[in-house]
From TrEMBL, chain A:
It comes from the Eukaryota. SMART domains: PAC, PAS. NCBIfam families: sensory_box. It comes from Prunus armeniaca. This is LOV domain-containing protein.
Automatic annotation (TrEMBL), chain B:
One of its GO terms (molecular function) is hydrolase activity. Keywords: Cytoplasm, Guanine-nucleotide releasing factor, Hydrolase, Nucleotide-binding, Nucleotidyltransferase, Transferase. PANTHER family: GDP-D-GLUCOSE PHOSPHORYLASE 1, GDP-L-GALACTOSE PHOSPHORYLASE 1. Residues 254-401 form the GDPGP1-like C-terminal domain. It comes from the Eukaryota. Belongs to the GDPGP1 family. The lineage of its organism: Eukaryota, Viridiplantae, Streptophyta, Embryophyta, Tracheophyta. One of its GO terms (biological process) is glucose metabolic process. It comes from Prunus armeniaca (Apricot). InterPro entries: GDPGP, GDPGP1_C, GDPGP1_N. Residues 75-247 form the GDPGP1-like N-terminal domain. It is found in: Cytoplasm. The keyword Nucleotide-binding applies. This is GDP-L-galactose phosphorylase 1. One of its GO terms (cellular component) is cytoplasm.
């Protein structure tokens, strides 16, 4: 947990400098910032307004996933819409029923948008603004039409000319969603509070969009201080070899130690390494990404094992070897390494996955699955993530 | 008149291939390590016992449990690990991850897969499609004939209420084990079959207990991209031995994105909605105070359909929180010669996955030409007409209301006018339909 919080601090401060927290604190709005590259897509910043609105303390929220604020009355389809938007790395504005710490539900307008790394076009964070919806009963009729108009107006206010194409689709969709979702009651026994769906007013929509813009300008400004620039729209797609945030999110759920290497890049560098890998080897992310796996070998590593690995990669076959590896601190361990080719949606080999298992390590015995089975399950989870990553028609796919 | 269609049956087990030639010859000490009496004594398989959740994810419970470090997604890991193991052992007929797949550009996001290997090597067989319930026939292929290596684990409710895993547990016929087995012709990674109480040799027919088991599996896997599906006879099930299918695909299905309109909430709190703007008409069930409430409501609806001889498909989505029920009539149309040749030529059998928007195509041409329009055209043929759909709904709602133990809320809330579907704004306008008051004669039956 300690190292996890460390990662979260790092995720934020290293990009925006230490002073960003103070600047964000001055904004009155309720919002959170999440990091899709960290395991579990956790909240890395929560505004005072947000904590006050939900009744949580900061430490109860940082490191958690946003889904903890959902409850039985939360519309499943809206949750799915948000999941899709994250996957496709696009903005979304949607009415959502959330729950405070004391269990009381409330309607809010949730407006989320990605923050891009200016240099490589990769998503570094998501900003989510929550505007409480002042309750008024839903009027019947004309809904769809109203919403569409509001939707396109919102589009003008917030997006200007950029990303309009991407957004217009989602807004048409959104208009439809809202008109229909707002018709849904909630099977909840808490009575009237949840019974009626609420519809955000123009004012609330504008408030959300303005808040997003203010937050983005703070983030942009402070990223200039560190030289690691971010922006509110994707400026570049040069991030070849980098994984999209949606792949990062799915890979982040896999608890075992593993790396993905890209056989199409020179010297087959590591393009992803799991948190458990850093823990096992003692290296940090930036010391690992972009390098070939051979840094794990050392003086006593059996070269015939390295040869076997090379052979299986050449033959595009899976293999399991027992190989002596070295941590950053030079201590050695026996690694039961399983390597397998992983195909993308076209059916072509996109990566090799290497799953490490420290021989005789007690805390891996865990819950009864044999080490081999756990390795295989990590491989399976990686296959599913990689296969579906390249299927999408989302804007992030190159 | 008896309605039949000819189709190539899917080979789900390596022990199914030679069945036509060998018939029922193999009985008794068969030596292939199957799940019949001959091989069961001494057989051992992993056993996963799930904790009976009495709550569908969400609410304060969820908040509380999320406070703790989330437990390892055990069933997910077990299933993936065992499946990958079978892949390494070469038990599948092809590597499904080598099959090209894509999301079709367009409004709906239909998913297409080119799978040229799935239907090779089999001659078309005749299937009777006009009887949703047919008795179990031990002479035909059934899952007790699969090899034990194709079975991944036994799946049951835990007795002490805690999750249990036994890597190697004896298979005890007196306990009526339910098992999860691979489908050797997978349509996506992790494609498995859940076979409730396999040794009881149940025909393909939903009952409350079996459906609850399937729902538990979805909840237990806890992965929104792991969905279960069910095809009734006459709705493209090919094996008359009770089974559900499931696989992983980390993409949202078009049916999951379709807007819905609430029709009613049952006494047990299960919300029933109707799909809108989707080529196949269907119902969506969600909510309920307990998982069992949701399960019972859906099973009662399924039982009603099968007893009325209406073929249907079921999709269990979102970790068991949303269930889609789709009555269909494609096979019937096909048998009557009412399906256009261009659709038949694709040889796409519109079962639960196709209806949900995941199209497995056999010809490269169809894959390359796949479009929203083509997918829509095919699925539109599957759907009941609006008129028929409303009739079927009336049957379903009556069945649910009975299952509800006479809870009046349902009927009070019910709205089954056939022409109310086009105006969203009318839902809450308290135009409660007085036409169904819970008595038989009010229902429009044909």
């Amino acid at each position: 947990m300690e190292s996890e919080l460390g990662l979260i601090e790092q995720s934020f401060n290293s990009r925006y400098s230490l002073w960003v927290q103070e600047a964000l604190s001055e904004l009155p709005d309720s919002f959170t910032i999440t990091d899709p590259c960290l395991s579990g897509h956790p909240i890395v910043f929560a505004s005072k307004g947000f904590l006050k609105m939900l009744g949580y303390s900061k430490s109860e929220v940082i490191g958690r996933n946003g889904r903890v604020f959902q409850g039985p009355g939360t519309c499943r389809r809206s949750v799915m819409e948000i999941r899709e938007a994250i996957r496709e790395e696009r903005a979304i504005q949607i009415n959502l029923l959330n729950y405070r710490k004391d269990g009381t539900p409330f309607w809010m307008l949730f407006h989320m948008c990605p923050v891009f790394n200016k240099e490589d076009g990769r998503v570094t964070h998501f900003v989510g603004v929550q505007v409480p919806i002042s309750r008024k009963p839903r009027r019947s009729g004309r809904n769809g039409v109203n919403l569409c108009e509001e939707g396109s107006r919102m589009n003008d206010i917030f997006y200007g000319s950029c990303r309009k194409e991407v957004c217009s689709d989602s807004l048409v969709e959104l208009g439809r969603v809202q008109s229909l979702e707002s018709a849904l009651d909630d099977a909840d026994d808490r009575g009237l509070e949840v019974e009626e769906s609420c519809e955000a007013s123009d004012l609330e929509k504008t408030r959300a969009a303005t808040a997003i813009n203010n937050i983005l300008s703070v983030l942009t400004h402070y990223s200039e201080l560190t030289g690691r620039l971010v922006c509110g729209k994707r400026c570049s797609l040069s991030g070849v070899g980098l994984l999209s945030s949606s792949l990062n999110i799915s890979l982040g759920r896999i608890k075992q130690s593993f790396v993905l290497t890209d056989p199409h890049l020179p010297d087959m560098p590591i393009v992803y390494a799991s948190d458990a890998f850093f823990k096992l080897t003692g290296y940090a992310r930036h010391e690992v990404l972009g390098r070939n796996c051979r840094f794990l070998s050392g003086v006593d590593t059996d070269s015939s094992m390295i040869y076997r690995i090379k052979e299986s990669i050449q033959n595009e076959k899976a293999c399991t070897v027992r190989i002596l590896n070295y941590r950053k601190d030079k201590s050695s361990f026996w690694n039961l390494l399983h390597i397998s080719p992983v195909r993308n949606a076209s059916g072509k080999i996109a990566y090799f996955v290497g799953v490490q298992m420290e021989e005789g390590c007690k805390n891996q015995v865990g819950h009864g699955l044999s080490p081999e089975m756990r390795q295989r399950s990590a491989v399976g989870a990686v296959r599913i993530a990689v296969r579906s990553l390249s299927m999408g028609a989302g804007p992030s796919k190159s | 008149m008896m309605l039949r269609i000819k189709r190539v049956p899917t080979v789900v087990s390596n022990y199914q291939k030679d069945e036509a030639e060998e018939g029922a010859r193999r009985v008794g000490g068969c030596g292939r390590n199957c799940l019949n009496q001959c091989c069961i004594p001494g057989a051992k398989l992993p056993l996963y016992a799930f904790k009976k959740l009495n709550k569908i994810g969400g609410g304060k419970e969820l908040l509380g449990s999320e406070k703790r470090e989330p437990p390892v997604d055990f069933l997910d890991s077990l299933l993936l690990g065992e499946w990958e193991d079978r892949m390494q052992r070469g038990l599948f007929r092809y590597d499904v991850t080598a099959c090209e797949t894509k999301v079709i550009p367009g409004q709906f996001g239909f998913i297409a897969q080119l799978n040229e290997g799935r239907h090779l090597k089999k001659r078309p067989t005749e299937f009777r499609v006009d009887k949703v319930l047919q008795p179990f026939d031990g002479n035909k292929f059934n899952f007790t004939k699969v090899g034990q290596e194709e079975v991944l684990f036994q799946f049951e409710a835990s007795e002490d209420g805690e999750v249990q895993f036994i890597p190697s547990a004896p298979v005890e016929p007196e306990n009526s084990p339910s098992v999860v087995a691979i489908n050797v012709s997978p349509i996506e990674y992790g494609h498995v079959l859940l076979i409730p109480r396999i040794l009881e040799r149940l025909p393909q027919r939903i009952d409350r207990e079996s459906f609850l088991l399937a729902l538990h599996m979805a909840a237990e896997a806890g992965n929104p991209y792991f969905r279960l599906g069910y095809n009734s006879l006459g709705a493209f099930a090919t094996i008359n031995h009770l089974h559900f299918q499931a696989y992983y695909l980390a993409v949202t299905f078009p049916i999951e994105k379709a807007p819905t309109k609430k029709i009613t909430v049952s006494g047990a709190g299960v919300k029933v909605s109707e799909l809108l703007n989707y080529p196949v008409r269907g119902l969506v069930f969600e909510g309920g105070k307990t998982l069992q409430d949701l399960s019972n409501t859906v099973s009662d609806a399924c039982i009603c359909l099968q007893e009325n001889n209406i073929p249907y498909n079921v999709l269990i989505s979102d970790c068991g929180k949303r269930i889609f029920l789709l009555p269909q009539c494609y096979a019937e149309k096909q048998a009557l010669g009412e399906v256009r040749a261009e659709l038949l030529d694709t040889q796409v059998n519109p079962a639960v996955w196709e209806i949900s928007g995941h199209m497995v195509l056999k010809r490269k041409k169809d894959y390359e030409e796949a479009s929203d329009e083509n997918a829509w055209k095919l699925l539109a043929e599957v759907s009941l007409s609006e008129e028929r759909f409303q009739e079927v709904n009336a049957l379903i709602f009556e069945a649910i209301a009975c299952g509800d133990n006479g809870n009046a809320n349902l009927l009070e809330d019910l709205e089954v006018e056939p022409h109310s579907h086009d105006e969203v704004g009318t839902i809450n306008t308290s135009s409660h339909a007085a036409m169904v008051t819970g008595t038989q004669q009010c229902l429009v039956l044909q």
